[in-house]
Amino acid sequence: MSEAGSIRLTKALALLERLERGALPRVVANLDEFHPDAAEVLLGFSFHDVVLREGIDLKTREMLTVAMLSAMGTAPGQLEFHIRAAMNNDVTRSEIVEIILQTAVYAGVPAAMNAIFEAKKVFAEAAS
Amino acid sequence: MSEAGSIRLTKALALLERLERGALPRVVANLDEFHPDAAEVLLGFSFHDVVLREGIDLKTREMLTVAMLSAMGTAPGQLEFHIRAAMNNDVTRSEIVEIILQTAVYAGVPAAMNAIFEAKKVFAEAAS
Amino acid sequence: MSEAGSIRLTKALALLERLERGALPRVVANLDEFHPDAAEVLLGFSFHDVVLREGIDLKTREMLTVAMLSAMGTAPGQLEFHIRAAMNNDVTRSEIVEIILQTAVYAGVPAAMNAIFEAKKVFAEAAS
Amino acid sequence: MSEAGSIRLTKALALLERLERGALPRVVANLDEFHPDAAEVLLGFSFHDVVLREGIDLKTREMLTVAMLSAMGTAPGQLEFHIRAAMNNDVTRSEIVEIILQTAVYAGVPAAMNAIFEAKKVFAEAAS
Amino acid sequence: MSEAGSIRLTKALALLERLERGALPRVVANLDEFHPDAAEVLLGFSFHDVVLREGIDLKTREMLTVAMLSAMGTAPGQLEFHIRAAMNNDVTRSEIVEIILQTAVYAGVPAAMNAIFEAKKVFAEAAS
Amino acid sequence: MSEAGSIRLTKALALLERLERGALPRVVANLDEFHPDAAEVLLGFSFHDVVLREGIDLKTREMLTVAMLSAMGTAPGQLEFHIRAAMNNDVTRSEIVEIILQTAVYAGVPAAMNAIFEAKKVFAEAAS
Hints:
The structure is a homohexamer.
Chain A: H1 3-19, H2 24-34, H3 38-51, H4 58-72, H5 76-88, H6 93-107, H7 109-127
Helix pairs in contact in A: 1-3, 4-5, 4-6, 5-7, 6-7
């Protein structure tokens, strides 16, 4: 890994830790088992190159991510992760509800129903 | 149209007018030509039942809509409309840029390229 | 909930009961736990505003829903529900088979394979 | 082309002619220019192997196709073709309207708006 | 089943056996339980009419299939099957990794993450 | 732009030039007009971080990209670009045909029809 690469990954992983405290070892181990470059390629791009950019705060970025993943409907595990990450970064339960209801308008009611299923898992944890 | 229906549609159309000043006659005529109930069914649901709800402000809701439509990639005309509507409601050009770059992470680079195409049409109008 | 809202929801829930006898308490509890307005917003729109409209009978509407959900491929749980609902409303097993084979043409063979998986669960119940 | 292949294609093309009178030479020329086998592979499968099957009548099959293409939102040209084909096979304008409004429930309002755009082109022809 | 049909299915099933040794009885039983024609319609088209065509070798075709299913993200079970089928037909683990990283570019990072999940199941089997 | 960034972008742009000779100024100008970082973020990731990786040769990578974009169906302009790029990198017309026919299996016949439309534009240029 190049020196530049290493700083990029370090910053990306620091953001991952902000999204969900303690997720870092699990996420990195999962990617490293797949390929040693996967964390750098995927998280370096996602978190360092894009999500860490200025111009939109992290709370709003996580709201956008929840909206996109709910609308696309193809990554329920990632949607659950980002609902949790959103709530870890000041998005309220009420805001999650509103994002998901808005998904029904733009992507259809089944997309909203799927997102409700993921959100309720996160809400249940938060309540316990 | 029931009395309740009529209030619902009136409120929905008032929101449409906030999204793009002057769009109302064109949008409503388009839907009425299709079917007299279409405006009530589609805009009543979208705007009155969902987007007008409290809990997230209109600026943020338009950011979420731009994110969803960019990620889905199936409605470029609606995406162009909502980029314009977002900018009419205090979303900055810089924020549109950031939303679209974030789309590349969650929906792929071609989705971002398509959204850039629509955004540049709106930016060009705003600049002129 | 407004008086108009309440009639709308009541009619929507009566349709839900026609789709699957006994599903009402489970579906409503699921939505109420998410947010007290969710049933009204999502089921009021889906069932009262749209599916209960005249012009296409319920049997055909459920065939259309099975076709759409099979083709989209993003909501297997909802697809299973609507295959069951279709068969509860006079759609035959043979018609389900034909819809799913037609999905292979318009959305690809994997979409059909996914729908076959859901259909076989419903067929197995019906046979037992 | 094998003898069996030729009967299969002949039947497929006869169905194409029922979907839109006069479309056959244009559709076949388009596919033949791409590859001499394309008509057999694509139309043989679509029309002979699937749509010509018994169990659902052609009118209902075209309604299903309009529903699937509207929901998927990725093939506006094919959607326009099948709205026209549906209306050529006894689907009424009112039924097209209802299918498209139902699309809003299952695939979102933008999907319905896109389908309205295609439907209005076909309705305008029918009216002239 | 016509004589021509029977040869077509026989060739399709021989390819299925090349994709995964021993999968044939399970796949055919699954389809036959759904409808006696399903194997002919779905596998005859997929494998005989298309994948068995000359012009691209089987190894490359399976790479293309893994790319398409990863990008679409709607058929994880089929994706797992085709990652295994690819590796049974000379696609290396390293090539699977590269296809999936390329998916991140064209369909987004969550699509790649989903594919990584399926690939790791297949890699674990191969390692044991 | 950091030194590391500049090398990354330089390599990405060199690949772009291999994909389509002369496309570089147009693509970069398009992205720079949108935002000065867009070329680095989008092309740096796509081309430097992923497509330039070893393990799969460029010809095969372009075949995979054509397969993914055909199957997704949401970026016809990018599909046209990559069909041209594939043919500029030793993919034959016959291979493009086979990829697109294979798309019909995994993503449906309309996806293949859309890709045929784009391919024929590129084939026509190549023939003239």
